[in-house]
Each structure stands twice: as C-alpha cells, then as structure tokens.
Amino acid sequence: MILQELARYYQRVAESGDGAIAPEGWIRRPVDYFIVLAPGGSCISIANNWWMEGKRRIARGELVPAIGKQALKHTNSGKDPNLLWDNAAFILGLGNKGALKASSFDAEIEKWFDGIEDPALSDLKLFLRSMRKEGASKALIERFGLVDEFEQRDPILAFQWQPDGPMPIHHRAFVRAEYERKCALEDDGVKGNCLMTGAIGVPIAANETVIKGVWGAQTSGANIVSFNYRSFESYGKREKGGENSPISKQASFAYTTALNYLLGSKQRIQVGDASTVFWSEKHTGLEGSFADLFEEPSKNDDPARHTNAVKALLNSPNNGVYSEEERGIKFFVLGLAAPAKARLSIRFWYPGTVGEVAERIRSYFLDLAIVHADYEKPYLSFFHLLVSTASLGKSENIPPNLAGEFMRSILTGLPYPQTLLQAAVRRIRAEQSKKDERTGKPVQNVSYPRAALIKACINRSAKKEELKVSLDESNTNRAYRLGRLFAALERVQEHANPSINTTIRERFYGAASGTPVTVFPTLLKLKNHHIAKLNKGEAVNQEKLIGAILDGVNEFPAQLNLQDQGRFAIGYYHQRQAFFNKS
Description:
Elements: H1 2-16, E1 26-30, E2 33-37, E3 43-48, E4 50-53, E5 56-59, E6 61-65, E7 85-87, H2 88-92, H3 98-113, H4 119-131, H5 136-143, H6 147-152, E8 156-161, H7 173-185, E9 191-192, E10 202-203, H8 249-263, E11 268-271, E12 274-280, H9 285-294, H10 305-314, H11 316-319, H12 324-327, E13 330-337, E14 345-353, H13 354-368, H14 382-387, H15 402-412, H16 418-430, H17 448-462, H18 478-496, H19 504-514, H20 520-531, H21 536-550, H22 562-582
Parallel strand pairs: 2-8
Antiparallel strand pairs: 1-6, 2-3, 4-5, 7-8, 9-10, 11-12, 12-13, 13-14
Helix pairs in contact: 1-8, 9-10, 13-17, 16-17, 16-22, 17-22, 18-19, 18-20, 18-21, 18-22
C-alpha cells in the first residue's frame, strides 16, 4: 500500500504541470558546473551553477537523464556512466579509474545517439575527443582556476552549447526527443507480473533506484526493496535482481522519484531517527501546515510560524480552517529510518483523512496544555518534548524507537507509549540535583516540557482529564497531593533560608516520589524547624496550606508506581507554578 500511494502521488504532481517532479526517464540532481562549448567543440567557460548560504554551498537542481541506478549511486566498476552529465571523473577522466570512466562515458553517448546528426552533440563529441589527450583535462581546469576545487571534491558537470544560451544540451528539443524515444523502446531484460500494479508481462526493474536524504543512511543512498544474501532470494531466482520482488520499471520509477522528491521538500520533518514525509491525495492546507505543527521555525523563518499554525488548528472548529471537502481527503504519513545504513526500515505508516489527522493533532496539543511561565513558549515542538527526556539534553540520546511510537500514538489517537512516561520520570529523578554550569544555580528538574508530557500520558491512559491544566485543589489523589506537599515544604525551607544553595528537592526528591514513607516523616519534622524562622503571619499561612494538602492523606505509602510518580511530579509542578503566579 505504501508504494502504491507514493506512485499515485507521483502521478498527481507530474500531472500538475509545474515541473516540480521529474518525468519518467529523468531525475532532478544538483549540478555544480556547466561546461560551455562554442561551435567547433572548444570550451569557452566552466560556469558555476551554485550559490552560498552562509558557509554552505548549494548547487542548483537540474532535470537530467536517468538511465539507471547510477543516476543516484555509482558502483565501483567505472563502467556505469550517466548520459550527458556526470562527475568530473567520468567526463574529464580525472582521479581513480579516470581513463576507464571517461571511455565509458563516451561509449554511452555513442550508444544512445549513434547516427544522430545534431550540431551540439557533434561539438560535444569533438570536445570529449580533445579531453582524452594526455594532460588535456588538467590543462582545462588550470585555465579556469579550478584545480583546488576539482581536487577537493568531484563536482557534477553537464554541458551547454553557446548558441543555445543557458539551456543544457540534454534539453535541446531534438536530443530530448531522441532520448525519450529510446527510453520507450527499451524493454530488454526480465519481464514479469508487477506486484504493485498487477500489470502482466511488463519490464521488471532490475534494481530499485536508491533513496537519498534519509537521516542515518549512507550518503550515496539506500533501498527499501533489496536483496543481498542468497538466503533472502526465491528458489531459482538467484542473482536476478528484481525477479525476487518484481516491480515494473514504470512503477519503480514512480514511487522512488516521489519519495526522493518528498525527502528533499518542505513536506518532510525529522521525528527522532525517522525521516518523516507526508502528503495528501489532493492538494490540501494540511500539506503546508503539517511541518509547522511539529517543528519550530528556522532562524531565517517567521518565529511565530509554529505558534500561529497551532493556534489556527486549535480554533479550527470555530474558524473552519479545513473545509468539509478537504476533511475527507486521504492523508498519509510515512516514517523511514536507516538502522542498516544501506537499507531502510519503515518506522511508522499512517493512512487516514485530513479531518482525522487534524482532530488527532488537535487532541495532542490539548493533552499537552499545562500552566507555564509567561516567558516560555505556549506550544512545544515535537523535538523540544523528546529532547527533554534524553540524557544531557542531546538528541542523539533519544531512544531510537521512542519518537516513532510517540508519533504513531498522536496519529492514531491511542495512548502514548509507557516508555515516554518512563523516560520523563527518569530524567526528573536523574536531574533533581542538577545545577546550571554557568550560574551554579539549581536547574528545575520538573520542567515545563516534562510536566506537559507526563500530564498527556496519564490523561490519555485514563481516558479522562484526571490532571488539569493548572493547580487542582480538589484532586484527592494521594500521589498528586504528596507532590504538592513536597513543593510546599520546599517553599517553607526557601523562605526560612533565602540564601540556601541546596534545598530538599536536591537531596530528597527521588525518595519522596518513589518511597514516600522513608522521607516525609523526616521532612515534616524539619518543616517545624524552618517555620519557626518565619514571621507569624507567613507561618500561619504555610501551616494552613500544608494542613489542607494533608487532609485526606491517611498514611504515606511505602512505594509509588510509575503512574503515581508522574502524578507526584505534576502535583509538585502545579503547586510551584501556583506559588509563582500568586507572587
């Protein structure tokens, strides 16, 4: 189903006529330089086709012929050139196996355009013939001051013919028509029944075109459908590539082109280790806003973009952000990971409708809603939430499957994974005594994002709003009240000793939230010592608050389970926020 929907998306974009996606037989690849040829075959310039973004060089994407898997990934044979474009090793014969690669490049042009009379092609052949002379390629790049550039990288090159202006030779009407005519006639190789489309007796793709842009995969690309050991291959089909999983050339081209296009577009977000793409059956507003709902804007983007997108979604029942017609359109989300570098795995796949996805994302943000400081963002990004559960606050420490499971829960409306709750509670306990490296002041371990996650997990699991957005004095849950009590006892200590550097949180939070009976009797005795230092009015108020919190708490439990440790954290967080709000 995944591959079929990708193929349908290819057809949708290809039929739109905006040129955003490559037609069959073509691929969009970054081209670094154009070798500009004059009539007669002499090179008059090597024109750069890139620009700088900060310190990063960006090559402009060009539509180029795709005659095989090498359009995205070369083998080590040196005999798999591209047509009318390639890297400097194949075109100029530079580097390892340069002579072999250059002769292969020349032979490929002869194979596709043998006997074809075209002035630009004739001049190109003259140029290539001159480059095969010893030292000619080196002299060429020296003439244009590109020796260091070509030594440091292997740039992608294509050709322009001066009379045509900036149009590449492979886009000349006659050259393009001949190439596409030959592509349509090329039906050699294995034929079979396509598992994707059901077509019978069609040419089968020998290998899947590599998928590029998946986080963690090798830079040369990886595959979804591939076989590399005989134990994975069907009987009698050894070493025959696509026969083991027959997909027609047309269908294979469609889904791989669509996926490569999505991975390089704005319809892609990073969900933990899963490179996630999304699309709809027809153009919808959710295609444009989905990434904004989960990701914070980049430095050069509108800083309020994420906040505005969430606000619009939360108000959607009132403002009709998605029309009734749009709500019924199919919407798809696909998460890909590369645990084996060269092979991709499906982290998650969700087929639904725009209406379903919008409602579930809306529920997700309502689940997360919790009181916070004015200076903190009203809505947290997916990455910000996940990284709050990771050791040292580093994204590489996020458990590999956690992000995918979390996203799947959001899209399906199912309870959030217990591992998410566990990770948030674990980080709170681990950082109870953490101090800011720059200021030396204690860092709040029950932070806004962790509290939001815990509230969401517990409420979704209970299927009701057990934990409110802010302090709930009517909540009689024992763990929640113990969290409030711990916050109140800490507050008394802070007021009694304004210059204190280490509070009870740093020493006792872990024990108080896990085994309350072991510490709360001691803390209540310590409280009496601290209250004696307060003025009479404040002492009375603090005693009243502690008494009200303890009302109904008959005994301190020996142990709190994971859910109750979460409730303890929310009680503590709510009470702390209430103190700040009142002041």
